[in-house]
Amino acid sequence: MESLKGLILSGGKGTRLRPITHTSAKQLIPVANKPVLFYGIEAMADAGIEEVGIIIAPETGPEIEVAAGDGSRFGLRITYIVQDEPLGLAHAVLTAEPFLGASPFVMYLGDNLLQGGISDLVSAFREHEPDALILLTEVPDPENYGVAELSAAPPGETGRVTRLVEKPSEPATKLALVGVYMFTPSMHDAARAIEPSARGELEITDAIQHLVDQGRRVEPHIVNGWWKDTGRLDDMLEANRLILDTMPERVEGELIDSQVEGRVVIEPGARLERTTVRGPAIIGAGAKLRDAYVGPYTAIGEGCEIIGSEVEHSILLTGSSVVELDGRLESSLLGRNVTVRRGTRQPRAYRLLVGDNSDISIL
To answer: What is the value of pTM for the model shown?
Structure first.
């Protein structure tokens, strides 16, 4: 098999994470203080892929280009490919065809996280050389995903893919497509052969189904570890929890009459005064915490301030402030440079999804 290329999809409008995505690409929202997109790029690099194309939208593409650069920091080369409109995953493949050429490729949705990366999957794809390898996992709500049906197989084996349906009203199985796919160049012809769906998009499920109907070999791989689509607030917080659970303890900031418990990362330049942090948690570089409590599964971004307040199970982006709240801020996602402060009356708990450059007074 020829050298694989990578294709990461980083367009889309991110409507499920508004208002955050009114001012920022959803793929750049951080999980454990690292943009979601970077996990996918690092997975490509770890699998030995040297050339990666990133599909970008006209509106958010420049921001993504600035963040990821030419790829040298990740040990690979990045080419940016503009998809003028979000017309489906198969349309993205066609848009990237000049970059992909005759190479087999890995397609990775830029807002997805997959435990353990893709190195083993790339090795299996190289070894068995199917026309397509798709990742599947059981989900409780398959009607919200592309769903696969498999042929019968002996015990301990997995059957071939026989049918794929995009967001079926009555799913035949609970096997949903994970946002990682591996294709040979035959996918280009398959994407050209299909028609737009009822929602006006060229669906990747229809293109894979075309391969199946043409007698091509489409193999499934059942994902046993966790996988997360970070398109919604609850999923983003859960992904943050899963990543923080894997981080080793590291304390490089300044602690003054403060204590940390459990797996806590405190980046250089952070300053904690009379503060308790219970991990898993991460405190970004230059953050200032005073008379504060940070509970488990919290990611505090660079330059944030937490004063006289408690924060738990939340994500705070760069430059945000939480000041003098009597109640605990929990299960929240604050955009960049957001200020949350006490008003004249204080409820006991707050749950917020707040866009960038906001200033909120809690009454």
So the answer is: 0.88
